Amino acid sequence: MNDYKDENVWLMQGDCLERMKEIPDGSIDMVLTDPHYILSTSRGGGMMGKGGRKFMEDMETSLKVGIDTHEYLKGLIRLFRDKSHFCGVFFCSNKQIIDYLQFAEDNKLQYGVGVWHKTNPAPLCNFKYLNDVEYWIYIKGSKSKIGGSYFTKSMVDSSQRNTKESKMYNHPTVKPQALLKKFIINHTVEGSVILDTFTGSGSTGVACKNLNRRFIGIEMDAGYFEIAKKRILG
User: Fold this and answer.
1) How many CA atoms, within 13 angstroms, populate the side-chain half-sphere of residue 152?
2) Cα(52)–Cα(29) distance, integer angstroms
3) Homologous superfamily assigned to 4-233
């Protein structure tokens, strides 16, 4: 195993559904994640462009089957103090929105759907609408508060895709630090424990480190795991 653990960072390589079982009950304060492979059998991941398609093909070859969204979210609930403290922000494709919202409804959790408007989308639209938006969903219990300020609480964010770091780390979905920090500031305080079950190149972990939050990251791909480890541990 290439795992790493200290008092502020816990990095695990492997399947998130299995590695999540090692995290003690009630030990996290937030989930912030950008699933980099399809979470349902609908095969609805929203990748665009040659690099994105290649990335999805590689992931599907290694995983064979997607992860059931409801089972995944159900596994997360025990990691919180109780259901009323559940707090998660999930990037997703439009085909996955209904699964997240149905889970929230079934569990009587609060939720909302936001949009990240990419001001420099890939110029590949053919006979479809331009791929210039990405969806994010927050799901929270009644005792999970939304802090932040007027300037961090908009449900719409506009910024450029992080093409520089995407090229640097050979990962097509690296999110801007400012976007990740917005969610961390809104839903946690310093010292909180944030979990990213699809760590990728480690952007969420970097944001947590810079904002004095503790971080737990799980990543299946060995190459991305090493990149994330180097970025987060410096």
Assistant:
1) 15
2) 31
3) Vaccinia Virus protein VP39 (3.40.50.150)
How high is the pLDDT of residue 164? 59
pLDDT average, residue stretch 226-230: 95
**What ranges do the domains of the chain cover?**
4-233
Residue 221 tokens read as 């791909």
For residue 160, what pLDDT is reported?
A: 83
pLDDT digits (tens, 9 = 90+) for 43-85: 433 444 444 444 444 444 444 345 788 999 999 999 999 999 9
* Amino acid occupying residue 190: E
Q: How far apart are CA 73 and CA 55, in angstroms?
A: 24
Neighbouring C-alpha atoms within 13 Å toward the C-beta of 76: 34
Res 66: pLDDT? 59
Per the rule left: phi > 0, alpha: psi between -120 and 50, beta: everything else, 49 is: left
The HSE-up count of residue 104 (CA atoms within 13 Å, CB side) is 22
